[in-house]
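Researcher: Next sequence.
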Amino acid sequence: MVTALACVGAVMPFGSAAVQAKSISQSDKAALHGYWLSQERDGVFRLEECGDKLCGRLVALQYEGTNVPRDKNGKSECNLLMLTDFKPTDGKRWSGKILDPDSGAVYQAQIWLSSHNVLKLRGYIGLPLFGETQVWSRYQTPGKIGPECKMLP
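Model: Next structure:
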């Protein structure tokens, strides 16, 4: 399901975070907000502000029947906070953490927009080169989310 999120990595830029954070405009930050469809098209995430940082919740999943997928601790993945502590690292990128609900592991990650409707997410283990980039697309129909976070056709 959304397990591929565990390995979505990024090259960390060098330089002063304080100076770099100033280069993020409010419009750049706002452009990240909203609903995003995962690369595998099996999950929808809502990115929003969490205090002075960005975070993301899994708000819709593609699954059969009525049993909502559960994480390794048996908790529903519905509305699970999976992207946390994202703060600006340069003019367009945000660095934070991503949770793999299947293993419970948390990885470093970066997100950035390659266009208004395309978000790239890269996570890694240890070094940035040990990761991969996923391409997410803006989810245009958040009204197609049913009960228990089920993605509707």
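Model: The longest strand covers residues 106-115. Strands lie at 34-37, 43-50, 53-61, 80-88, 94-99, 106-115, 118-124, 131-138.
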